[in-house]
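Complex record, two chains
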Amino acid sequence: MSSRLQIILSGLMVGKLGTILVLFGNPVNMGVCVACFYRDIAGGVGLHQAGVVQYIRPEIIGFILGAFIIAKMKGEFRVRGGSSPIIRFLLGFFLMIGALVFLGCPLRMILRLANGDLNAVTGLFGYVAGIFVGIQFIKQGFSLGRSVKQKPVGGYIMPMFAVVLLALLLARPTFIYFSTEGPGAAAAPIWMALAAGLLIGGVLQRTRLCTAGGFRDAILIKDYHFMWGLIAIFVANLAGNLIFNFEAFNLGFEGQPIAHTDHLWNFMGMSLVGITAVLLGGCPLRQTILASEGDTDAIITVVGLVAGAAFAHNFGLASSPAGSTLNGQVAVVIGLFITVGIAALSTERSVSMERGVKSNV
Amino acid sequence: MNKKICIMTFHTTYHALNFEKALKREGIEVKLIPVPRDLSSSCGSAARFSLDDREKALTLSKEYNIELDELYEREEETEKPSLLDRLKRKK
């Protein structure tokens, strides 16, 4: 099977599972949303008190364990790290703020698009704009530095974290929060969500599909490999929505589920996601897969995502269907400034200049 | 007909871009691609060029201070090979 076919098939699978999970209970247009699901988990373990978005999402547990198991089997579980962990934490943190102002990670943006939500088009423009800005820094030599081989034990933290989450989900102790209404209460059966997560985690570990990589490669090196996967997610989800859930398909800006029509902030939020994702070298989904195969820098990024989600709901940064909040808008602007600042200070050219070495190219 | 090619990986995309620029400047055919999945699970960029240009590429990299990661050599059918074929050939 050619690698193009594989990436298309894995995209089709993600899109299809997105439809199925919604049919069986997940929030509409949220069959799979990595940012939303980390946010729900942050709420579930009590890091924020937004009562409508608290649930330990089995999909995330599945992503982690699926990617971990396949990486182990294929000999690709390599523990490495040490590439600017604190910067990655910050970028992950602000990525989540941007995603929660828009209301979805890049994957959910595609799923929203596939159900007719035109606000996701605004988000898509913002996302591509953010990636474009990030690419300019890469061209200037932006890098977070090399990672080095690390002690194996660090790589097992992520799968252990997933096992603990699974235990908490099944045992439902009283200190874990489960929404009784709102998106947090809408969920597919645990076994189904877990199975879908395992499948996606395993397949994406193999194919490396990444929503940021798709646009980055298309713009930067004119390579459309991952873009085919993204198109496949859209097509499969669109087809699934039209066939199985036609009544819910709604083309337009108004009245979209778990979305708002604040165009400027849909754009700005996703711009922040785009620039942070491209600087991190991968979207939240890809970071989760990397974190599960021993990349401890990606684990720090995920911790940043969870912290960002907790902040977003504790300080009223996250948008709601009513629109974005002033706090959220300020946070996005601060995030853009900090991200661009970090990017500008981490380019090779600035380093070379400090050393008095002139780059040859 | 099989064609012998090289795949060069880099620690940063910046160096991949400079590598492409340097080779193109010397008229060497080079294409940037995502790192092939069977080489590494990282998601950076790699450069693909003909084995005939191997030495020239290495010299140029030194001249231009381009930091290289790994160089892989492989055969490729002129038609796009499938991953399965590539894996088979590796064995």
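Note: Chain B is about 35% helix and 30% strand.
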